[in-house]
């Protein structure tokens, strides 16, 4: 079954059915990283519309020309709260008011469960639940994570403390008024000290766990601006301004211009692999350094920064980067 998909907002997707078929199968066909059972649960919970009408029947039959709209964020995040254990992960809270927490995410922790994960693997949601319970805040797994970071990425991640704040912050991300800046150490020295990478990103055709910078009917607009802060012969420290929020965006974009991030075991080159070994790089050198958003609590703009983790500092020092 073939479908044409295009971007609506940063987290909302819409596609037009080209032939008749089941609704759940059609959505799975948009991105096969999601299990049919999860899609069915989301449909039953009212997160999908067909021709602007909410549909809760998983076996609903689409007709050619039907317009399907669904919230991609919910596809990633919909999780039963009862399935999330409360675990003290000793998470560092960088900012907090009545509406928002910004947490310094450690490396090696997925932010939420995925269908390909081991059932025993714990996620950041468990640590967030512990913080909420400690502070007496009601916890709902579906209304805390406003955005995501890759498992190996460290730094600022924004957490909503209630449903109204979640909706407000989601709208800010959709309108792209939230600013996110990342630090990365990459192999080699980019030709241009400052540049914007404008390359759509879609799922890799041969490895569905990875993304690729390519233009297809299902790829999505992706924009990253980088600035070289310092460089040596072999490597560079760059700051990235993320204009869109695609899966693995910075990693894919920097790799696509020939400068993969050190410590990346998915998007790498012979040079980045060599440097990763030579300098004993322990983790992905990608850090969500800063986030700027408007808090629903006071309607004021806040800038939050996360300190660099020790592994990143070690690599930076080993390479003699500022």
Summarize model confidence as the mean pLDDT: 88
Distance between the termini: 52 Å
CATH 4th-level superfamily of the largest domain: Pseudouridine synthase
Main pleated-sheet profile = 9 strands, mixed
Q: Based on the structure given, which CATH architecture of the largest domain is correct?
A: 2-Layer Sandwich
SSE string: EEEHHEEEEHEEHEHEEEEEEHHEEH
Radius of gyration: 20 Å
C-alpha geometry: globular
- Total domain modules: 3
List descriptors:
about 325 residues; alpha+beta; Structural Genomics Hypothetical 15.5 Kd Protein In mrcA-pckA Intergenic Region, Chain A; Pseudouridine synthase; 9-stranded mixed β-sheet; 5-stranded antiparallel β-sheet; 8 helices; disordered N terminus
Descriptive notes:
The protein is an alpha+beta fold and 322 residues long. It folds into 3 domains: 3-77, RNA-binding S4 domain (Structural Genomics Hypothetical 15.5 Kd Protein In mrcA-pckA Intergenic Region, Chain A); 81-174, Pseudouridine synthase, CATH 3.30.2350; 181-287 and 312-318, Pseudouridine synthase (2-Layer Sandwich). It contains 8 helices and 18 strands. The strands form 4 sheets. Strands 8, 9, 10, 11, 12, 15, 16, 17 and 18 form a 9-stranded mixed sheet that branches. Helix 1 (23-30) packs across helix 2 (36-44). The N and C termini lie far apart (52 Å). The model is unreliable at 1-10 (pLDDT under 50).
